[in-house]
Amino acid sequence: MSSEAAQRKKAENKFQAFSEALEGGALQQVRKMLNALHPAEIAHLLESLPPPERNVLWELVDPEDDGEVLLHVNDDVRADLIRSMKKEELVAATEGLDLDDLADLLRDLPDAVIGEVLHSMDAQHRRRLEAVLAYPEDTAGGLMNTDTITVRGDVTLDVVLRYLRLRGELPELTDSLIVVNRFDRYLGVLPLTDLLTSSPELTVAEVMDRSVEAIDANLSAEEVAKIFEDRDLVSAAVVDENGALLGRITIDDVVDVIREEARQSLMGMAGLQEDEDLFAPVWKKAQNRWPWLAINLVTAFVASRIISAFEHTIGQLVALAALMPIVAAVGGNTGNQTVALIVRALALGQVTPRNALRLLMKEAGVSLLNGVVWGSVVGMFAYMFYHDMMLAIVMGSALVLNLLIAALAGVLIPLTLRGLGRDPALGSSILLTATTDSMGFLVFLGLATIFLI
Amino acid sequence: MSSEAAQRKKAENKFQAFSEALEGGALQQVRKMLNALHPAEIAHLLESLPPPERNVLWELVDPEDDGEVLLHVNDDVRADLIRSMKKEELVAATEGLDLDDLADLLRDLPDAVIGEVLHSMDAQHRRRLEAVLAYPEDTAGGLMNTDTITVRGDVTLDVVLRYLRLRGELPELTDSLIVVNRFDRYLGVLPLTDLLTSSPELTVAEVMDRSVEAIDANLSAEEVAKIFEDRDLVSAAVVDENGALLGRITIDDVVDVIREEARQSLMGMAGLQEDEDLFAPVWKKAQNRWPWLAINLVTAFVASRIISAFEHTIGQLVALAALMPIVAAVGGNTGNQTVALIVRALALGQVTPRNALRLLMKEAGVSLLNGVVWGSVVGMFAYMFYHDMMLAIVMGSALVLNLLIAALAGVLIPLTLRGLGRDPALGSSILLTATTDSMGFLVFLGLATIFLI
């Protein structure tokens, strides 16, 4: 067994052990097992259980971990768990959270709880929290924490070292101190590694790294992730439009952004809310899938009407009905390959008005080549089954044409969605398939009507 | 304009400026612009250019950045660039790279270059490199660097501080020192933040964190990423099966793993190699897409043969030909939603033999509900167009049945692929669509043959 399979087995066994202990009612044992887990693991576990068992387990979680676990479960499950909690429990759950996490959680809590939490904070803490809440969740401002440790450029490292020792514990994921001037304007960073290896007589200004730029609080989470990835950052300072320090973003939050983005595209491509609860009630799950199902039905009806316009042709040559799905399916497959390529290139900012046309020509070239190769194969098979040379030629030609349409649509649909300010990863695939289905039927049955009837 | 759109615009403008400067032949200017960029940005830029311009630009990149840029471009482009370089240039490009990055790059270089690089290293460095090369690229061992800084438990923090100052510069992304015994066995970590804030008279053993587990070198990259994500790590020690320290993994490499995984699933779902070069030659791009196209053709032929078995039925009622794609399309859409859900749950280790049946029942319930709701809608439309009550009933029933088949296949196909040791994200979608197409035609035309003819 590969190491990966072994690991997954381990995780599955863990889940299994939990459900068995739960069903057996060995609650003390479950509580002990549970409290040995990391909050993220508890969250995965809760997601994998049906609601009745989930609620039993949730009761057993150490109240100290409640907040962290709530942050790690998906939106649907979080809403469920929050609904099951009393107001005091919710207020208690918010204690001890990082400010950015607290801000995220608060956005999902009932107003009464938010009021209570804000009320129970000291003025400085509240001001900081409000600074984070002022920015949308998916911006640098929404991701930031305000637990920065700042130093001035004119003090010596020795002073900084003594200050840190005096201060005691540093915030998690502190890899550098932030250097500011006396107006709290960002100047640069002093990495802890440099602090540790430089001579203590030097001043901060002499050692600090001025080349690290701060992040604008209005920058999107996606762009923040790209900056962290490209520059291998652990943390970065966040500033307002005037360069005044607001807080800092740490890599753990960035990793969450990246994961979420990835899950969203994957689920979104299939027409699902990112956060569907595995065990949501059936009627809720069903509704979750209606929007795309409805769109899909509409496009299927359009294709159906196109076919029915050729009912006379099909009536005269029923073989067409058996062959037409091949033209549509191959077009959809090819077009979706182009869509995937363009969506990725768009995400990396690699498509410009300048090279879009070139990309289109490339993809059209690929389609032409694939059309000729596979069109011949398909035509040959059609001939084998129906012994009609003209039918084989019509079939092959329809395939070439539909592949060209697929290339065109595969490039233009994501570009158009992007142009309209929408996420090209979400609607492209369904629109592409709608196009290649309808056009595939139209081209094939159209050619057949002209040349075969 | 939103901040995100503005950022993307900026990136696009940058690309545009480059292509214009390149075409205008203002090479000095291009060189200057280029060297202001981060290697990752240069890599994105190279990927977005067609080969002739790409090669001109590549010549202008500062040779010092060559190695880093090669690491950041995708496999296809990397192979191209490597082919364009002389042996000495390649050897020079490997200089100054982190050991894990060097190992990655070496795997793609010609043997002569590898020999030269190994030959030019000192014995200690070479031994370390060989330790990394001994593990596959996608394991903890393949991801690790051997630039660890270790300390013993019995020394005081003061000694450690003096040692670090003497040593000078620390490796990038050092957030903790690794504590080992005199046999180089891993014991725990000493976070730099604790080193800075604790009393210098304490010993390492008194301050160190023993709760942080080391990572087994054989663990898969995917599992490593999950550990980093769940535990908010910046770096982690890597050990062999005996607990002996081998090296450490840093978060930057983990972020790359996460990104790559995400891209791979997205491209893989469409049947593309993850790393297709946007501007690869047409014949190469075309071939890249053949494997899945071929599979798709085979499944389309199967569906076609199923339809042709009912040619007699269609000949008597041509409306069936127009309606049958609706049954197939809606089944495919629904099934792919289930596939996406199961693939995500599998990736999180949330599917166990115990809850798989429950999940299946849930999804079947959703299909039944959606089938009744949308089957009625579809049946109504069919009646509107063809004024045949029996046809409408057959249509609605076929939809319900095909949605149930879709739910069943949507759960079982990814589970089976996983059971066979394959990545469920890759083949599931195409197999699902093949099933819902074929079964959709079979059920609809079968029912029609029984009840309408």
Give a structural overview.
The structure is a homodimer of 453-residue chains. Chain A has 453 residues and is mainly alpha-helical. Chain A folds into 3 domains: 3-139, Alpha Horseshoe (MgtE N-terminal fold); 150-260, CBS-domain, CATH 3.10.580.10; 289-451, SLC41 divalent cation transporters, integral membrane domain (Tetracycline Repressor, domain 2). Helix content of chain A is 69%, strand content 6%. In chain A, the strands form 2 sheets. In chain A, strands 1-2-3 form a 3-stranded mixed sheet. In chain A, strands 4-5-6 form a 3-stranded mixed sheet. The radius of gyration of chain A is 29 Å and the shape is globular. In chain A, 50% of the residues are buried. At the A-B interface, helix 1, helix 3, helix 12, helix 13 and helix 15 of A face helix 1, helix 3, helix 12, helix 13 and helix 15 of B.
